[in-house]
């Protein structure tokens, strides 16, 4: 049996290893159009590789996927984060769990994961062909023909793990085979806030902020980072993931409201603020650091609330407190555009899941054609979920059921 894998990324490699392991006598060939393998694995998590997330129940794990949640829940019944941890451990790679439940190799180096894949591929006899573009694909009676370098090569099974495409044209070849394609759009991206002073506070971060997009149901929390272009961090990335299509419709120009202290409501926050101002009533308000937020942020909030730093805390009146509360809980910003890091971030959209048997990842349209990874209309929030989807769909596709 001859098996072709289109794509030498995370899903492609996992599919190839799964296929060779379950069909040891088969010839398994990975075709990668570029000269680089496992590019996203290399840059993920700042070069540390966020392998998966420490969420070990399939039903709970599936909740982190804005698109494909219901369908991938079934797939997680076959291969999930428990299996991922065990798979790497069996090959000598220990994973560690961090405070936010992201999981990394204990070496904190993505090359550990890359070498694991390359070593396993060499050990099993997987053939890897870089700088090899698939020029055409044609279903035959019992095989699939791939056109490579102007020549036709028949394969018994083909697994498409070509990754997401920023444009619909990049998925046209799969549409021509009869598959419905959900239009691709950026899913994980940061917010550009070009006209706001907050950008001068580059590097400022809070442990838990809540982001709301007025006029929508988008409300997400998590760490937030101020950058020289605007805002990033898990709170922003989750908002962009769940709101991928909504924010695209707005042409990436919209308002956000930031609650700098998370899910705290106004009444609770008012009590805490009043208590803090009373306890430190003789101090200058600019020297206080309430709510365990960075001192820089507190000073920024005072400035935006038009409160002088030299003012004595005990002298703040109701009007001043209301201004501070409003800035703390409903700090508004105009977002104008997005920033997407091509190597690491993902797209929503891809091959419609109604055209795929999620128990096998085989196409319902073309026999002997399988899918894995980001080419499918499945995407997760930040935190290792997109890699887990790659491992899961790659493993299942490689079983060639």
CATH architecture of the largest domain, please?
Answer: 3-Layer(bba) Sandwich
Helix content: 25-40%
The general outline is elongated
Write out the CATH superfamily name of the largest domain.
FAD/NAD(P)-binding domain
CATH topological fold name of the largest domain: FAD/NAD(P)-binding domain
Number of domains: 2
| Whole-angstrom Rg | 25 Å
What top-tier CATH class of the largest domain fits best?
Alpha Beta
Q: Report the biggest beta sheet as strand number plus sense, adding barrel if it closes.
A: 7 strands, antiparallel
| Average pLDDT | 95
Strand order of the largest sheet: 17-16-13-14-15-12-18
What does this entry look like structurally?
- With 401 residues, the protein is α+β, with helices and mostly antiparallel strands.
- The chain has two domains: 2-186 and 342-399, 3-Layer(bba) Sandwich (FAD/NAD(P)-binding domain); 203-339, no CATH class.
- The chain is 32% helix and 24% strand.
- The strands form six sheets. It has a seven-stranded antiparallel β-sheet.
- A hairpin with a 4-residue loop joins strand 20 and strand 21.
- The radius of gyration is 25 Å and the shape is elongated.
- The relative contact order is 0.19.
Please give a quick description of this structure.
32% of the residues lie in helices and 24% in strands. The chain has 13 helices and 22 strands.
Tell me the layout of helices and strands.
Elements: E1 2-6, H1 10-22, E2 27-31, H2 39-47, E3 52-53, H3 58-61, H4 69-76, H5 81-90, E4 95-97, E5 102-105, H6 110-124, E6 127-129, E7 134-139, E8 144-148, E9 151-155, E10 157-160, H7 172-175, E11 181-186, E12 190-192, E13 205-212, E14 219-226, E15 230-232, H8 234-242, H9 244-249, E16 253-259, H10 266-279, H11 295-304, H12 318-329, E17 331-336, E18 338-339, E19 347-351, E20 356-357, E21 362-363, E22 369-371, H13 385-399
Parallel strand pairs: 1-2, 1-10, 2-6, 10-22
Antiparallel strand pairs: 3-5, 4-5, 7-8, 8-9, 11-19, 12-15, 12-18, 13-14, 13-16, 14-15, 16-17, 20-21
Helix pairs in contact: 1-6, 1-13, 2-6, 10-12
């Amino acid at each position: 049996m001859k098996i072709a894998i289109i794509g030498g990324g995370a899903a492609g490699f996992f599919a190839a290893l799964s296929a060779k392991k379950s069909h040891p006598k088969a010839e398994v060939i990975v075709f990668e159009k570029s000269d680089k393998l496992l590019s996203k694995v290399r840059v993920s998590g700042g070069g540390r590789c966020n392998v998966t997330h420490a969420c070990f129940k399939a039903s709970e794990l599936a909740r982190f996927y804005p698109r494909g949640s219901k369908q991938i829940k079934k797939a997680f019944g076959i291969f999930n984060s428990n299996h991922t941890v065990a798979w790497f451990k069996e090959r000598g790679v220990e994973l560690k769990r961090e405070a936010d439940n992201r999981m990394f190799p204990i070496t904190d180096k993505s090359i550990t994961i890359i070498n694991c894949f390359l070593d396993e591929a060499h050990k099993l006899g997987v053939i890897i062909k870089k700088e090899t573009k698939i020029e055409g694909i044609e279903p035959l009676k019992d095989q699939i023909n791939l056109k490579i370098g102007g020549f036709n090569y028949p394969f018994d099974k083909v697994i498409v793990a070509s990754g997401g495409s920023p444009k619909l044209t990049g998925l046209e070849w799969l549409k021509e085979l009869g598959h419905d394609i959900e239009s691709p759009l950026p899913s994980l991206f940061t917010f550009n806030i070009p006209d706001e002073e907050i950008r001068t506070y580059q590097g400022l971060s809070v442990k838990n902020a809540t982001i709301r997009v007025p006029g929508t149901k988008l409300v997400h929390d998590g760490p937030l980072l101020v950058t020289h272009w605007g805002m990033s961090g898990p709170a922003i990335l989750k908002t962009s993931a769940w709101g991928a299509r909504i924010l695209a419709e707005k042409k990436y120009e919209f308002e956000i409201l930031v609650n700098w202290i998370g899910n705290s409501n106004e009444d609770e926050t008012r009590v805490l603020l009043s208590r803090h101002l009373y306890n430190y009533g003789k101090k200058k308000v600019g020297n206080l650091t309430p709510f365990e937020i960075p001192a820089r942020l507190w000073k920024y909030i005072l400035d935006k609330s038009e409160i002088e730093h030299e003012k004595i805390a005990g002298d703040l009146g109701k009007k001043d407190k209301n201004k501070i509360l409003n800035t703390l809980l409903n700090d508004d910003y105009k977002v104008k555009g997005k920033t997407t890091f091509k190597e690491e971030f993902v797209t929503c959209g891809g091959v419609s899941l109604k055209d795929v048997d999620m128990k096998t990842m085989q196409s319902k349209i073309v026999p002997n054609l399988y899918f894995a990874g980001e080419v499918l209309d499945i995407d997760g929030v930040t935190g290792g979920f997109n890699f887990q989807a790659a491992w899961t769909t790659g493993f299942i596709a490689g079983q060639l059921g």
